[in-house]
Input
Amino acid sequence: MKASDLLVKALENMGVDHVTGVPGEEILDIIESLHNSKIRFIPVRHEQTAVMMAATHGRLTGRPGVCLATCGPGALNLVTGVAYAQLGAMPALIITGQKPISAPPQSRFQLIDTVSVMRPLTKMTRQIVSAASIPTLVREAFRVATDERRGAVHLEVPKDVATEDVATEMAEVALAPSHPIDRPVAAEAAIEHAAAMILSAQSPLIMIGAAGNRPGLGEPLSEFVRRTQIPFCDTQMGKGAVTGASSLYLGTAALSERDYVHAAIDRADLIISIGHDAVEKPPFLYEKIAGGLKVIHIGYTPASVEQVFHPDAEVVGDISSTVTALADRLGGRLEPDPGMLELRQSLLERINGINGGTEEATSSMTVRRIVHAVRTVMPEDGIVCLDNGEYKIEFARYYLTYAPNTLLLDNALATMGAGLPSAMMAAELYPERRVLAVCGDGGFMMNSQEMETAVRLRLNLVVLILDNSAYGMIRRKQREEGFAEYGTTFTNPDFVAYANSYGATGHCVTAVRDLAPTLEAAFKAGGVHLVAVPIDDSENKRVLIQEHHHKASDIEPEE
Output
């Protein structure tokens, strides 16, 4: 046995079943060890994809995904994906190769201090300098990645370390089994204080943030809402933690200001903030009103106190245990605010709009109509993975979610190019569920080469491309800030031919009435499909202006 075999055995010991990556000279020993193991190595076409897939594995399962890249350019190509995992609190282990540390045979060729590069982007980064330390470091990496706040960890394996001889007996002794870790629970006094604040409030409101959308939290949070009967809303990355079909759901804060759900914030006298993560866009909705709004922070970790978020009380500990304990103290003791429930009806009438099905089938293709078509073909457990662009706001506001982690979007790093890799991992993990990637043309082309990977993996995946031949969000920002529209347009390939060239099936839909049937047929056919949808940008611009520039007070019910 050699050290690379021990590394792979340590990964097996942690329950790893596949590793994504791009092969390279300095990691050939590790790849050979993977070849002779139970772990499946999935080669992709760019290292960024490998780490984004690993991060999505962590997001969906709670267990770190693992990716592999070589030194130098391979390691540097990971950087955006590592930041995507770290800012998004998605547990992932990144393994990179390195030149031999004992006797570098090629001087400084491709030699980059990868550990220093990764240090500000990860929770932990280590160079493995001895085979004997591998089991300990792997186990520590997994613990650090999954400990709250979750994120990315990195291990570097020099080539001469990977080839070290290891006694089989040592390996068997070193691979101690992992064990479940129970998170600390909140102090009893903190729970009692929060319960008292909630009981004294006239119009409490629950806001679920990114850290409230961890695997396993859906049931306890749903029970908390059901037992307390407190209305709730969520942030973009908290969306879906509790079903949007609930009679207490008020919507998603898709914008930092001037959004419909802010009318509920304005009415509330107490915000119960569950899982707030400062990485999301500043929630101006938390700004204090003199003598009015109070905030309780419920989270795994203490609140990050900022100008826009400074809570009056904190309940720090395992979120599941906290909300269950609070429900035990509050259940049946609260009287819902009738004005908040009346407001909910006004909010839903505004938010649903297009979802009533009153639009003409021949209407121009806007994002809201696309959202409606997507919702009609996706089952409750179907997974929609968004890239980053203007359309993300519309999906966050108008796409109703019924189960946790069925609308995957990134409101942390918010990088373009993540939609397709994220959807590929979702399709790999859940082949029996419908998975749809929604990408703008700009974001799709940043990792579009992975269509080949999706076809090679025989995934069942539909990719929806919103085609306006522009970086639409940036162009809108130019308009809003009074700049000339410059440097934001480009020419796209023939997306149908492009998809077909990879062995996928391409479609182009130009009429609203044809979109849902085309998506439905693609899902039923199986395999990889790309559906290109030319966007009516002038109509979409009109809708955006109409929808985004209003006051929340416009829909506040009269007292």
